[in-house]
Amino acid sequence: MDAAPAALTTHDLSLYYGRFRAVRDVNLAVQRQRITAIIGPSGCGKSTLLRSFNRMNDVIPGTRAEGRIMFAGQNILVPEVDPVVLRRRIGMVFQKPNPFPKSIFDNVAWGARVNGFRGELEKRVETALRQAALWEEVEDKLDRDALALSLGQQQRLCIARALAVEPEIILMDEPCSALDPIATLKIEDLMRSLALTYTIVIVTHNMQQAARVSDVTAMMMLGDDSRAGTIIEVDDTKAIFTRPRDKRTEDYVTGRFG
């Protein structure tokens, strides 16, 4: 695998819910301006790992992490790092679209306002909507309720909301699982265009989606103790799907189990 510069790296990362270790000993380099897909069976810790990258797990009582996550030259797990500030630089799009019960404009402007943006807010909103491939569909109805949009449009609106604060990394947790095939294709096309500017990490159960959109794929499995998930293989996506090194990866991507 030809490694691009890393935007984020983990070093011997383990993640716990109370005493239960959900993820163990993960070493991963997320390459800058590439799409990295994290795949693996249900319950192996993919979403837990993804949420650790901007400390979203912090909102769950009893969670803790061991090891390091390095971003911008700093271990983001240390207490000195403000997770709110971190999430401005590492944004997240969730499995189900979650627009606020506000206007389309106010949804996109919300993050910029919260973060004290003092520039031309209308321009920032337009730019984010254009980046999310939604501007032409909503430019004449920015004052309408965002909840009136289709699910696919709502998900692109949530992406625009994340983009409005100009993050460096975008995390996506099953962003198409609630969408129909046409809306899914639009999100996938959008991811490819965004990867020209942003670093993207996506968790997906959809093998075809991982193969279509990602540059790099990380395969997660439950470890020998059958409780904690870990990454067993990372490679260029084409290699993962055509010539994986680990037999467990081959069995998973070919549908033999999982």
Layout of SSEs?
Blueprint: E1 6-17, E2 20-31, E3 35-39, H1 46-52, E4 63-71, E5 74-75, H2 83-89, E6 90-93, H3 104-114, H4 121-131, H5 135-138, H6 151-163, E7 169-173, H7 181-194, E8 199-203, H8 207-213, E9 216-222, E10 229-236, H9 237-242, H10 247-253
Parallel strand pairs: 3-8, 3-9, 6-7, 7-8
Antiparallel strand pairs: 1-2, 1-4, 4-5, 9-10
Helix pairs in contact: 3-4, 3-6, 4-6, 6-7
Compact overview of the structure:
The protein is an alpha/beta fold and 258 residues long. The protein has a single domain (6-253), classed as 3-Layer(aba) Sandwich (Rossmann fold). The chain has helices spanning 46-52, 83-89, 104-114, 121-131, 135-138, 151-163, 181-194, 207-213, 237-242, 247-253, and strands at 6-17, 20-31, 35-39, 63-71, 74-75, 90-93, 169-173, 199-203, 216-222, 229-236.
